[in-house]
Design a protein that fits this description.
Blueprint: E1 5-8, E2 14-17, E3 20-21, H1 27-38, E4 43-45, H2 46-54, H3 62-77, E5 85-88, E6 91-94, H4 102-118, H5 122-133, H6 147-173, H7 177-190, H8 195-207, H9 211-229, H10 235-245, E7 267-270, E8 275-278, H11 299-310, E9 319-324, H12 331-342, E10 349-354, H13 365-375, H14 387-398, E11 403-410, H15 413-417, E12 427-432, E13 442-446, H16 452-463, H17 465-470, H18 472-481, H19 486-498, H20 504-514, H21 523-537, H22 541-550, E14 557-559, H23 560-567, H24 571-583, E15 588-591, E16 594-596, H25 599-613, H26 615-620, H27 627-639
Family: Belongs to the AfsR/DnrI/RedD regulatory family.
GO molecular function, one term: DNA binding
Keywords: DNA-binding, Transcription, Transcription regulation
Length: 647
Amino acid sequence: MMPGLRFAVLGPVRAWRGEDELPLGSPQQRAVLVTLLLCEGGAATADQLIDAVWGAEPPPSARATVRTYVSRLRQVLGSGGEPLLGSAAGLYRLRVEPGALDIASFADLVAQAGAARQQGDAATAAERLHAAAGLWHGEPLNGVPGPYADAQRAHLERVRHLAAVERLTLDIEIGRHTAAMAELTALVEEQPFDEGLRRLLMVALYQAGRPAAAVAQYHEIRTLLADELGLDPGGALQELYQQVLVADPALTPPALTPSAPAATPPVTTASTTASTTVAAPRVAPAQMPADITDFTGRAALLMELTDALGSGRDAGSARAIGLTGLPGVGTSALAIHVAHRLRDRFPDGQLYVDLRGDHGTPVDPVAVLGRFLRAFAVEPAAIPDDLHERTALWRSITDGRHVLVVLDHAHGAAQVRHLLPAGSRCATVVTADRRLPGLAGVVWRTVPVFDADESLELLRCVAGAQRIAAEPDAARRLATSCSHVPLAVRVAAERLSARPTWSVAEIEDRLRVEIRQPVALHADCDLVEAPLERRYNDLDPQTALAFCLASLADGADVTAAEVAGLAVLPLPEAERLMEELVDVHLVESVAYRRYRYHSLIRWFARRKAVLQLGHTITEAGLDTLQPAEHEAVAAGTVAGLVRGHVV
């Protein structure tokens, strides 16, 4: 017995006999097939087919062309017995078996959901609607031309939308608000004026423990309606807004219904011993550290990062931004702040990990992947030991979800590569001391120091606006003494706040003296220098030597030739060492073979020079040494001074 035919229109128009897909011919020929599949009774006249394909202006050969299309379809669909596509009494008729057309199956499942809903069985109704949603594969009648297909496509999209709204409503009713949130967020972005969708999203956000985000959704649509249409939100939306504001118990989420449909299919992973099926229920980990409440500045960069990470869900691979900059510039604070701003766009989870480790030892990606997978409720026994298998499972879990990952203090590309999530709906922020080459798709941004206005704004936020306004010139000098490095500005502002009887000028004068001392005099200096110390300790001995020696040169800038002379090195080697320092943001490249320190970093480097070379030599800047002594110092420093020996 020959296998039966199956047809699909909820996506590209396709047909199968058994497991074999059939060639349906040109787009116009598919338009004829679509008309016969969807018209009432499965029958149409030649004139109806002509109208369906070409509308009011058919070509002169339209009737003959339709006959050709029908003949070809009859051959493709024919079973060798009674023809499935026949003609009689001026009608073309296509015989389709029950259950052989996906739109009919969709309608049956929606009807079953409606019946279950009437009987009070919300879980079963949701299950049927999830099954119905699974029949869709993109735009209906994709690629099929003609006015009939256009009209049917619009109708099918409306039907799909209504079923989706009912399904999401049921998901929220049975406690699946987290799973519903991701789809609702995308739908609201597509249809920002739809109050029904906005209402569902507000409920889902509230039930997920995000009342502020629910309120923000209300304010967003209220502004849209007022600006674009001159209207206020409808009564139902206004009532919900009031319920959120007073934490109405009626909005309390129900207990999760066990029989509700799984939102994620099982993920199968291969190991060396067996295949394990991992049930990955929808959970939404929220691991971001606390945001900085007085985060200041970075307006343009924040806009750039939120736009890059929060848009383009379906445009290719997952989005990834890398942040780097000089020590203390605030890459970690910026990454975490951006993550908090974007959390509502990634309702399936926000993950954070400090890859530097507790003692400066880079964290093994195997351990990080285990942590990530457990956060998504993968049973420990189902997590493979092998790095590559864990990576594959991680990508399977994140594919199709809206997940944001922050990888802080990354050490190298090999560490990061395995931790990047899959799918265009995910996003990643990486912070590192330097750009990490070899990470395809990661776009790097160098975070600059503050400008003068941003530094003053941070001083006002921490120390008080009135105090800064009373001494504006001293405040500007204080910010300049901090090289406009955000960490240094914050520490200075906190000391100012802790000394209410001191003037800004007194704090600035004291700080300017302290940062120039051969050793740090105050615990605040240790706070500022901690990230500098970590980055310095990561340098190899020769690069650390160049960092110290170059700081002794006179003038604002230092050239590679001057460093070569100080360190008794060939010019190319001196240039290589200085370029390494540029890569890790300890010096700036201001021109070809010309470099500059931020003053805060220069004084740190000179303190290191004191420790490594001795106070007398560094005070003289090596200029008073005889050539033989100079060479001995350089040679001795390379061999041992950076390890702590003092000349």
